[in-house]
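Please check this:
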Amino acid sequence: MAPAAASGGSNLPRDFAVLTTFPDLLFIFEFVFGGLVWILIASSLVPIPLIQGWVMFVSVFCFVATTVLLILYMIGAHGGESSWVTLDAAYHSVAALFYLSASVLEALATITMQEGFTYKQYHENISAVVFSYVATLLYVTHAVFSLIRWKSS
């Protein structure tokens, strides 16, 4: 089953094959970088609270949803159903869009930081922006390959 999933076939991997097939291998990196964004946003001071709230929502939502999907794939809950391929493509497309919007807003908030913020707070926000864009890239890549898998199913 792993070679079909790796080559864009319609089968979703199960068990530990999730950790060896592409694009499902990206779950691990999405988990790590999404967690870093969550931590950095939670500890940083953003001048516009609404932006911080949206970025926090996106990072927590995607972290939890990615974790749940990874666990469900590892226990084989999909049972080979093609509807799970659709779910995978839809989720990663929405997550990519959410992370792109959160990354742009966080970058805007960091650029507009005025006086009253320390050098450390500014660097925390820069780190959050960088990791947010890395997470965006991971979700976009996963979405593209999930859409290819969906189209071939």
About this structure: The CA atoms of residues 26 and 142 lie 7 Å apart. The radius of gyration is 17 Å.
